[in-house]
Amino acid sequence: VERRTATLAATLRAVGLDTRAGGKSEVDADSSERVAAVWGCGRIMADVVGTMPWDVTLSRGEPVAAPPLISSPDGGGAIEWKRRGMWSKLLRGNAYGFVTETTPDGRYPNRIDLLSNDAAVWRKLRDGRKIATVGDQEFSRWPQGPLWHVTAYERSGDPEGMSPIEYARSTIAPAIYAADFSEDFFETDCH
């Protein structure tokens, strides 16, 4: 009796894709958006959170007028702002923005303009601490500085959020590799 076994890694290598290096396409937040399951789950979660109402109440439970940060966080619509922030947290593990307006006493933000996640880069210092840079300039996080940062998943002692896409790389990669293979296959007249 002849027995044959093939692993996913061996099959991908046989068609010219390296599972360790990410194959032809790199597995990252941008390429993962092409996977229907990632796109669908992310869209649903971002839409649900984005459309959830924000209310402001006093400690006694009495509603009060919403401050600008709640009603119009970036000068535009709160729904889109929440949706964009949630999308960043879901795919990259972090959401970033600059506090561009504060209350008159400077204690609370009135406006936060969201940044692309690619704009903020964490750099590790010799002493082990991490600092955030935007365009080669160091920024302290709010309230010590203007950089607003919220993580989706955080490890103790590490200010940078964990990217769900990084941790799901091994399950997302085959979908991306299959799409690349089929695209190449049909573009070369099935050769």
Question: Explain this structure to me?
Answer:
It is a single chain. The protein has 191 residues and is α+β, with helices and mostly antiparallel strands. Helices cover 36% and strands 18% of the residues. The chain contains 7 helices and 6 strands; from the N terminus they run αααααββββββαα. It has a 3-stranded antiparallel β-sheet. A 3-stranded antiparallel β-sheet has the order 3-4-5, with no helix packed on it. Helix 3 packs antiparallel against helix 5 (78-92). The longest helix is centred in the C-terminal third of the chain and has 19 residues, at 169-187. It is elongated, with a radius of gyration of 22 Å. The two termini are 33 Å apart. The model has no long low-confidence stretch (mean pLDDT 84).
